[in-house]
Amino acid sequence: MSEVQPSSREHAPRDPSIGVAAIAPERDDLRENDWTQRLVLFLRVMAVISICKGLYHWAQITGFVGGEDDAFEYQSMAWQTATVYFAVIELVAAIGLWLATPWGAVVWLTTVVSMAVIELMFPAIYGGSLLVVSIEALLLAAYLALAWMAARERPP
């Protein structure tokens, strides 16, 4: 039997540019969509919150929350109108937010601004809580910051 001679290829030095590192994505490529992922996570959290808010408004309309004195029929027309508006628009926003669609963000932004305006300009409807306005403003600022950072990730 004859011995198998090693080929010259096995003894040649390896080219450092060829290998796993050359075909593996760089660390920057893996982190390319971090802000977009954070934005989608934020939108999903806002979707869950919008569902809760929408269901709460429907519970007010149907009488599942509050006593007989707080019944929907005994409230002012402005309160009834605002409650029905938010009962519908919050759930529509939740769907769009969960799907991370542009229209979902627009509808959600409409709910945020609407609630802030009602609290500030028409305090007789829901009580004019500055805490609610502050929370809505904080959520709006968080959305704008995340959207800005996500937009910067994507090339034009």
UniProtKB/TrEMBL annotation:
Key word NADP present: no
Stretches that traverse the bilayer: 39-59, 79-99, 106-125, 131-151
Keyword list, A-Z: Membrane, Transmembrane, Transmembrane helix
Source organism, top-level taxon: Bacteria
Keyword set includes Protein transport: no
One Pfam family recorded for the sequence: DUF6163
This protein's name: DoxX family protein
